[in-house]
Amino acid sequence: MNLQRxxxxxxxxxxxxxxxxxxxxxxxxxxxxxxxxxxxIDSNDYHLVSxxxxxxxxxxxxxxxxxxxxxxxxxxxxxxxxxxGRAKDDNSSSNIKMATMKEQxxxxxxxxxxxxxxxxxxxxxxxxxxxxxxxLDAIAVSTGVKKYTIRKYLKNDRFELQRKWLERKKVxxx
Length: 174
Known about the structure:
Elements: H1 3-14, E1 18-21, E2 26-29, E3 35-36, E4 40-41, E5 47-53, E6 56-61, H2 62-71, E7 79-82, E8 96-99, H3 101-110, H4 123-131, H5 136-143, H6 147-173
């Protein structure tokens, strides 16, 4: 976490409006009646919450908040690593470790997190289902892949088909 982001988080937490339960990996808001914040899932599958300071919204990944509570200033200039790899929904202290980028990359290589994304193996099937008239929702349920990712598959597939068609036309016109 960079210094500016850390200092902003320090200000937010100093208000007493939020509490991070590091054992559960969840964030409690003391505002109004008080409640657990319901995180959104970002495009990289991380749990994301909005925290407010003086009416302005700041977004933090829940694992960053857990690491902040666990490590304090040691987090500056480092990243948070999910020890169990792909399961980014476990933001408890037992699954979060501070790491340098070099350590993150080493962990990713050792655990097979680098390379073809898990969802990529569903690409051909998702495209076939779309061509067969299935809805995005139905494809997502059937393959377990997010609609956002399926849209990316379809977009990339269209560009690939257009490129092939243009190449064919160019050859035919010669």
